[in-house]
């Protein structure tokens, strides 16, 4: 009993997701229903135009999904579904690996001075997008992570910061040190009172420095959609790192009193 046209169409759609064209999928599904068939029979079974049958069969043979006899007329057979799907999956995996390597090469080139990417500044909006990006940056850190931020921001980052503390140096400055419980992280300074008051009016605000080259500046007062600026620009990083140095200097001077 052959599958209904609706069933065959659904299976063909699934095969299209694995990289086959519509006609290739229809021909392969048609061949699964018979032991072997001529091009004319395949045209009748699949509904693929007669003129397209041979070109489609040639492509399926090249993809190792169909075999052909050396008889006259030629007869075609489909290889078993498990073998066919595995072959298609291997093809997808190989293409994905190639795409990944090529895209990574472009990305790495973007970060070099020749690529000019160091002067770019990206804008990120929304709590979820901002926190997700900062978590990724912390997870990718190889040397150090420094965060100057409101407790609301630090609280959202407590897990990735604690995980990072086991492999890189993590330094945190926040406006509510008494509430901070971050395993393995030393809060060495406290935000000046005048800055702390201003920071407290923000739901999530702060600056995240990663590896001395990446910086994310988060801004957003209560009731507003938060916005963050991210850059790997040397000038952008240097500008905001001055605030970090200023506050650390304030904390150190106060501790000596």
TrEMBL record:
Superkingdom per UniProt: Archaea
Residue ranges of every copy of the Transcription regulator TrmB N-terminal domain listed in the record: 15-82
Database matches in SUPFAM superfamilies: Winged helix' DNA-binding domain (SSF46785)
InterPro entries: TrmB-like, Tscrpt_reg_TrmB_N, WH-like_DNA-bd_sf, WH_DNA-bd_sf
One Pfam family cited in the UniProt record for this chain: TrmB
PANTHER family the UniProt entry points to: HTH-TYPE TRANSCRIPTIONAL REGULATOR TRMBL2
Name of the protein described by the UniProt record: TrmB family transcriptional regulator
Organism: Methanofollis tationis
């Amino acid at each position: 009993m052959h599958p209904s046209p609706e069933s065959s169409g659904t299976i063909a759609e699934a095969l299209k997701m694995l990289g086959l064209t519509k006609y290739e999928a229809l021909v392969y599904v048609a061949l699964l229903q018979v032991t072997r068939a001529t091009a004319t029979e395949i045209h009748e079974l699949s509904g693929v135009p007669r003129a397209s049958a041979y070109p489609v069969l040639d492509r399926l043979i090249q993809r190792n999904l169909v075999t052909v006899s050396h008889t006259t007329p030629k007869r075609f057979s489909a290889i078993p579904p498990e073998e066919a799907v595995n072959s298609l999956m291997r093809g997808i995996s190989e293409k994905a690996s190639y795409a990944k390597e090529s895209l990574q090469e472009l990305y790495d080139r973007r970060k070099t001075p020749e690529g000019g990417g160091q002067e770019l500044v990206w804008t990120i909006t929304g709590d979820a997008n901002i926190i997700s990006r900062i978590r990724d940056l912390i997870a990718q850190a190889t040397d150090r992570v420094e965060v100057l931020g409101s407790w609301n921001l630090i609280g959202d980052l407590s897990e990735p910061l604690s995980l990072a503390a086991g492999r890189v140096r993590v330094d945190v400055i926040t406006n509510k040190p008494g509430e901070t419980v971050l395993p393995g992280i030393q809060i060495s300074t406290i935000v000046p009172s005048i800055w702390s008051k201003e920071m407290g009016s923000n739901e999530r605000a702060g600056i995240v420095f990663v590896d001395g080259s990446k910086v994310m500046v988060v801004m957003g007062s209560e009731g507003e959609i938060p916005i963050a600026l991210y850059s790997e620009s040397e000038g952008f990083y240097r500008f905001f790192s001055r605030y970090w140095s200023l506050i650390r200097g304030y904390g150190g001077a106060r501790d000596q009193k």
